[in-house]
Amino acid sequence: MTASEASIAVIGAGPAGLMAAEVLARGGAGVTVYDAMPSAGRKFLMAGRGGLNLTHSEPLPNFRARYREAMPQLKPAIEAFPPDALRAWSAALGQPTFVGSSGRVFPEAFKASPLLRAWLRRLDGAGVTFAFRHRWTGWDAEGRLQFQTAEGARVVEASAAVLALGGASWPRLGSDGGWVELLAAKGVKIAPLRPANSGFTVAWSDVFRDRFEGQPLKGIALSFGPNSVRGEAIVTRDGIEGGAVYALSAELREALLRDGHATPHISLRPDVGSGELAAKLSVPKGKQSLSNFLRKAAGLSPIAIGLLQEAAKAAGAALASMTPADLARLIDAVPIRLAGVAPVARAISTAGGIAFDELDGDFMIRRLPGVFVAGEMLDWEAPTGGYLLQASFATGAAAGRGALKWLNA
Fold this sequence. Notes:
The protein is an alpha+beta fold. The protein has two domains: 3-196 and 346-408, FAD/NAD(P)-binding domain; 200-341, no CATH class. The chain has 15 helices and 20 strands. Helix 1 (15-26) packs parallel to helix 15, helix 4 packs across helix 15 and helix 11 (274-281) packs across helix 14 (324-332). The longest helix is centred in the C-terminal third of the chain and has 22 residues, at 387-408. The radius of gyration is 25 Å and the shape is elongated.
């Protein structure tokens, strides 16, 4: 069978699935995209609410390294569809991009909806059809795809299928990890789905939680082991999250799973050395309250001072009794004892998924000929900053190319 004679099912209407559909349609295949939700790209739209971070501008060798252990398996797909290609693709859809001060790449519209609308128009023009409110439930005895719809069960016979159902984060937007049992029943090896780019739980005192819930710690450096990142963190009712936390979430998560606890440290004034801080804190306090003194002498915000008080209390000490040198050391490395990982449903993305050794070089599941996989269903993770979307687009394109190759063989 040639691609032009084939009917391909793409299951999942996120970035990976839509990119697979585009590549397949461009190769002449008839494509239908199935999704359990009422419309396409729901998580993609959510990702664009604060400014759609499509990819990153750093050199490709550094970029690839962000994928950690999965880099060798993802390298061919990313090199075939690198950040520059993604930017050109976006521009061709009428959404040129720009590089932000952090090196992150955004559409000039700074949101996802114009890009998604233009993309769906192009897919429609290429003959791609959509079947929404179709929840995939596996295969029947004859190998046909099964779906549950509002009208009841539906069976679809397809020449090949691309699975792009996402991980298990943000399940209300469609990626609920329901596919794990379906593929595991076929013998496919799957690493457990775990939160990635997630927050963590902390046993804050009631006083600290009630006063500072939802407030940011800005301009900090977060360190754990040999790793340190600059950014900000947000105190939540149950713990801590934010960009700096997400950047170290893989290391923190693995430590928690291994040891049952993890204690990163926060430098509240990372650009001021301990010696300089100690000198500033050695001046007479006079009649000032301790909080007012720390605000003026050390440039600390109320939430930073509250965090110091939390740490001192946990250590059985009092800030007021500390020497300037000890206080400076605490400001430079406030310990935050993490109690657990926030639930996967609240994570930005998912670690774990289908093991790469289950796939051939074209992203086809070896034990399921004609079934290809893309996106967060695969066993990889990456930090925020454009790396998540880039790998989803790139693996979607690779799975589409793989399906065309298999059909034309």
